[in-house]
Specification:
By secondary structure, the protein is α/β, with parallel strands linked by helices. It contains 15 helices and 25 strands.
Length: 472
């Protein structure tokens, strides 16, 4: 099936299409329209015109719009899950979970907008003041540019477009070219809804001049991007004066304290390290283990990892399917080999057939190795023995990233210190840093980005702006 272009509510065929091949078996999963600079400009112009209308649409209509999409997505749940698995090779059990989370994200966005409000002020509070009616209100920013990645090709689209649209904005969506049909089908639900704001959502794809045309244009007032640090830097340098929400990845770490339930920790760490083939911004990449329990934990983690099923993403019991493409596989292989050349030990795994990369555990690593200091984005985790939390904390914080960290400990003092002393946007106690609830604020420190996802927080920080009012 083809992923066509939406210029507002008008669906247009592309002049040219590229095949999207399944990372599992190489068959054609979809075809994506190739776009260009002119298409990008038309999408922005369409959105600019629609934004004038969109902000005037009554809130109850916008809320019903989202709820209508959520209801229809529920009916199409299995088809959407299959589409995700076709395009990116995500195991079907996790594709179904992603669709369910997407439905929740849409509903959360509607609920968050219903409770968003302004505030009144007593302007006689200071001697320089006088009696007035003073307040602020929130209103839509205008046009939002949303750029989304392959690893959660549905729910991360929802996190951007659902709150943006319910706030009364117009959106230009540029989804990953690895999963265009997923985004196209999702957008179609919005555009064909009886409650839809005309032309408020456009969908275009990659092509010559597209990125610069979208990012440099003054029409968009917000750019919401999830992807790599290099692309985030490029967007920042070209965007000009506008709001930026950049989720740029991480290097998630955890500390296993000697007081922790190491069996439970090992079970959870195996899941957090290898879910979605490690292709998650908060995939567990570094495990710092107290020296007193290191040996026990290492053996337990190996056993838990052995039990994970690697295979067809269409198999209900598969936990690990293919990586997204050969480039990702080659980089993972290279980093493992480089680490081994520098003295690291392959503790488990590292076998690979086509794009099927087995879960891999490395030991005897150093902080300078790429598999430790960079974002791996592959099913590779490193075990590092430490004396105590103090040593772990220094090593965990010694990273250009700061998205999510965690600590496994039954020592309350250690847990409190972790909350206060670890430098990341999210801290999890007694679970993996891969844990994320869509209702919470989500976003990192340092090079992990700026801004927050989570419908309530995206609405407050990115998709609405404050207008101050004084009536004398």
């Amino acid at each position: 099936m083809k992923a066509d272009i939406y210029l507002g509510s008008t669906c247009k065929a592309g002049k040219e299409y590229k095949k999207v091949l399944s990372p599992y078996d190489g068959r054609i999963a979809s075809q994506v329209a190739v776009c260009d600079e002119n298409i990008a400009k038309k999408a922005l112009d369409t959105a600019q015109k629609s934004s004038v209308l969109a902000k005037k649409v009554p809130l109850h209509v916008r809320v019903n719009w989202l709820l209508d999409v959520a209801s229809k997505l529920e009916i199409q749940k299995e088809d959407m899950a299959q589409t995700i698995t076709d395009e990116v090779g995500k195991p079907i059990q996790f594709s179904r979970i992603e669709v369910s989370r997407c439905i929740e994200t849409i509903k959360l966005s509607a609920n968050a907008m219903m409770s968003l409000h302004g505030e009144t002020f007593d302007t006689t509070a200071m001697p320089s003041g006088k009696e007035t009616l003073a307040f602020y209100k929130r209103e839509a920013v205008g046009v939002v540019l949303a750029i989304t990645p392959f690893n959660f090709p549905l729910n991360l689209v929802a996190h951007k477009i659902a709150p943006a649209l319910v706030a009364g904005n117009a959106v230009v969506l540029k989804p990953t070219s690895s999963a265009p049909l997923t985004a196209f089908k999702f957008a179609k639900l919005f555009i064909e809804s009886e409650y839809a704001t005309k032309d408020a959502l456009s969908v275009i794809y990659s092509g010559q001049g597209v990125n610069d045309a979208l990012v440099k244009s003054p029409i968009s007032r917000v750019i919401s991007f999830t992807g790599s640090v290099p692309v985030g830097r490029e967007i920042t340098s070209k965007a000009g004066i506008k709001k930026l929400a950049l989720e740029l990845g991480g290097n998630a770490a955890t500390y296993i304290d000697k007081s922790a339930d190491v069996k439970v920790a090992a079970q959870k760490c195996a899941l957090g390290s290898f879910i979605n083939s490690g292709q998650v911004c908060i995939s567990l990449q570094r495990i710092y283990v107290n020296k007193d329990v290191y040996g026990e934990f290492a053996d337990l983690l190996k056993n838990e990892t052995k039990a994970l099923h690697v295979g067809s993403p269409y198999d209900e019991k598969t936990f690990i399917g293919p990586m997204i493409n050969q480039k990702a596989v080659d980089q993972a292989k290279s980093w493992i080999q480089n680490a081994k050349d520098e003295g690291a030990t392959l503790f488990f795994g590292s076998t690979c057939k086509d794009l099927m990369f087995a879960p891999t555990i490395m030991t005897n690593v150093t902080e300078e190795m790429n598999i430790v200091c960079e974002e791996v984005f592959a099913p590779i985790v490193s075990l590092i023995k430490v004396k105590d939390f103090d040593e772990a904390k220094v090593k965990m914080n010694n990273s250009p990233y700061g998205l999510q960290y965690s600590v496994f400990s039954n020592n309350m003092s250690t847990c409190k210190r972790a909350i206060n002393e670890l430098n990341a946007g999210g801290i999890v106690i007694n679970d993996i840093p891969t844990l994320r609830f869509d209702i919470q604020p989500y976003g990192g420190f340092k090079e992990s980005g700026i801004g927050k996802e989570g419908p309530k927080y995206a609405l407050e920080e990115e998709y609405t702006q404050i207008k101050s009012i004084v009536i004398c």
